[in-house]
Amino acid sequence: xxxxxxxxxxxxxxxxxxxxxxxxxxxxxxxxxxxxxxxxxxxxxxxxxxxxxxxxxxxxxxxxxxxxxxxxxxxxxxxxxxxxxxxxxxxxxxxxxxxxxxxxxxxxxxxxxxxxxxxxxxxxxxxxxxxxxxxxxxxxxxxxxxxxxxxxxxxxxxxxxxxxxxxxxxxxxxxxxxxxxxxxxxxxxxxxxxxxxxxxxxxxxxxxxxxxxxxxxxxxxxxxxxxxxxxxxxxxxxxxxxxxxxxxxxxxxxxxxxxxxxxxxxxxxxxxxxxxxxxxxxxxxxxxxxxxxxxxxxxxxxxxxxxxxxxxxxxxxxxxxxxxxxxxxxxxxxxxxxxxxxxxxxxxxxxxxxxxxxxxxxxxxxxxxxxxxxxxxxxxxxxxxxxxxxxxxxxxxxxxxxxxxxxxxxxxxxxxxxxxxxxxxxxxxxxxxxxxxxxxxxxxxxxxxxxxxxxxxxxxxxxxxxxxxxxxxxxx
Length: 476
What we know:
Blueprint: E1 3-10, H1 14-25, E2 30-34, H2 47-52, H3 54-72, H4 88-112, E3 115-119, E4 121-128, E5 131-137, E6 142-152, E7 156-158, E8 171-172, H5 174-177, E9 186-190, H6 194-205, E10 209-213, H7 225-238, E11 241-243, E12 247-253, E13 258-263, E14 269-274, E15 276-279, E16 283-285, E17 318-320, H8 331-345, E18 359-361, E19 366-371, H9 374-380, E20 384-390, H10 395-400, E21 406-412, E22 418-425, H11 428-440, H12 445-450, H13 460-469
Parallel strand pairs: 1-2, 1-6, 2-3, 6-17, 8-15, 9-10, 9-15, 10-11
Antiparallel strand pairs: 4-5, 5-6, 7-16, 12-13, 13-14, 18-19, 19-22, 20-21, 21-22
């Protein structure tokens, strides 16, 4: 006997669980299906973000930052620490507890909003009377569902190096890199993107010698290059060895080491032997098990579910959101799409503005940006003004003892509309929200400059950068 729902969401990551909750808030009967389990076999909703991505990595970044501060910076504050030691099992255990709290929180939200949760995998069985048939199968679950609408939110998986599969022991994806049993003496990282830099930073702080190899000729080519250069300088000073323009050669893994051959940007050959190798060369959309072929769900040449501007697939009443579709693979982008699709299903006008989706890298210093950078504006031939302000001149940053970096505001030369904001420095991840808000309302640099900011705060650096667009910064 099948169970009927207005909406069945496949996947309980940020896009999926948020879509399910919003659809339920709008009065629809909703089911959400997710197969993830924790070490005890219990449901672990939240997707990659909660289980092996955003949340656990931030927990480890915070713990490793405390360790770094205690070992190297507390003395500046008159705090003496003797006999400092690391209990890695406690550190990892705290990370696991943070993850579980988030898992449990999502299950609570499902219950609160009357979303029916099924622990298992979901596959299309075909069109049926009333919508789409969806088969659910898990260790303790076997159900036949009928959905008037289906939202695919199955996320993504880490991309492997050709010929070097993940074993999560010596060759690590983000999953293995978050659960090491000891601090590796020598750690290699392939890919200087968000995952590589964040996890490389974690283990560098805890004592690893970290070498990051990046194929692109420029460091953080997606970021504003002034920001990228500042970040590169800071991370290198901390001890990360970062090489760009690298061409990988033969890479072999043994039970204890990974040997990487590569040529550097100048063409010189090198051999790198590491105890662990993190491979972070991007992610691929995950559609395995959906039975997409049976219902003729259209995928593109890279495996993404094809959708239009409203996240509709080629199948009637079947939608897709998050990492499995075009656009940046960011949890907050998936959430926005999830809400928008739920609202579109009931006839509302869901809104996602790709131009104001912020990007953040949670290294130290943090790196955050929204909108266009200087390279993009120059390439487009857009006339613009730029204003920047260093954290070195910010009172709150001095008090924190972290004055690395700056804020940069880019505005249209004629209208003063904010076109992009780029931050490298303390709490950039929090500061960027003001820029997102201003840009969503198509505000001007003058608007930021005229708004009163509390003193002393890091946010004053955003105001000063906006003032600098008109060459009237007050504190620099």
